[in-house]
Description:
Elements: E1 2-6, H1 16-30, E2 34-40, E3 58-63, E4 66-71, H2 81-100, E5 107-111, H3 116-128, E6 132-136, H4 142-146, H5 154-169, E7 172-175, H6 178-186, E8 194-196, H7 213-218, E9 225-230, H8 240-250, E10 258-263, H9 269-279, E11 284-287, H10 295-299, E12 304-308, H11 322-329, E13 333-336, H12 340-348, E14 351-353, H13 359-371, H14 373-387, H15 392-409
Parallel strand pairs: 1-2, 1-5, 2-4, 5-6, 6-7, 7-8, 9-10, 9-12, 10-11, 12-13, 13-14
Antiparallel strand pairs: 3-4
Helix pairs in contact: 1-15, 2-3, 8-13, 11-14
Amino acid sequence: MHILFLTDNFPPEVNAPASRTHEHCRQWVSAGHTVTVVTCAPNFPRGKVFDGYRNVAWQREIVDGIGVIRVWSYITANEGFIRRVLDYVSFMVTSTLAGLFVRKVDIVVGTSPQFFTACAARVLAGAKRVPFVFELRDLWPESIKAVGAMNDSLSLRLLERLELYLYRCASVIVSVTHSFRRELVARGIDGQKIEVITNGVDISRFSPRPKDPELTGQLGLRGKFVAGYIGTHGLAHGLHALLEAADKLRQLPDGERFVLLFLGDGAEKAKLRERAAELGLKNVRFIDTVSKEQVGRYWSLLDASIIHLRRTDLFRTVIPSKLFECMGMGVPVVHGVGGESAEIVQREGVGIVFESEDADELVAALRRLESSETLAATMRRNCVEAAAKYDRTSLATHMLEALERVAVAGKQTIP
């Protein structure tokens, strides 16, 4: 089977969509299938093309047996709604053109968060008369409304109509959460064609390790309880609450024990740095994005991993992918997201749930973990045991089985 996969994030980018797509496609190639990925020049989240790449009309490479075609797109940093839409639309156009030249395709997959990539996949599937699969990673455009990037308007309603059209056209929708599936069924989408395949972790790369001594010394972390946020610093993440917690921690009698580490980039990174400087926070470390090969060293520094999103009903439906990386690394989770992901944290016993944007609850959770080695040790053990349930290899196999069923049946609705 030849799988054509469209995504605007792919390694060497290190965000969740890039990692999931790469690991799934690598597994499919290992199973004997041909996979072609159409993507753009790596640039997320700073909007700057990575060294060794150019933003040109066509580049081709082989990555772990995966054929990768990189096309031109309008590149901008992950900030500014209009510019990001131009980025999305440009990739939709150029990926469609590139996909037309990929021959003997059996199935076309388009992945969100934004669904302009899925639009391109839908067009290509129609042109090639093969099934179209929508991998649903985010309820877009609802998510941009939730963070205040776009208000209710005619434009938003038109985007929502396009969203529903894509769901209806898809032979299969691969949802990363059960909450997304329930939402789609409530909106009239046939639940029989929705497969839930959560995010997971590559346990061959993410596993417990001792604290990196070199980084511990460089960052002044010896003898400290280190709580870290690793990931995108965007509007959706509400990270100013973490700075508020850092401010409260330093005022405690034992406050010098605590350090908060922020690793990653995003639209809010500069503002977070400025706010930390205004508050004079000496217990905060900001680190720019590191390579996929290096990120494990930074995970090793953490006594607790903070996962956080803004307080909104929409984010109760998501499962942050870093939760599974925490499990793999054996790092207890301090979880500031409600809903389905909080249920996983509590069910697996891998962390403490706190109310999003409540700095006092975050402080209390960190102090609880720091003060009880027995609790921390139990959670570390639970993390490793739970990680095996979310092994990316088995999840990739599950998705491959869904793709094979659709490809063999040749089911597709063409309006």
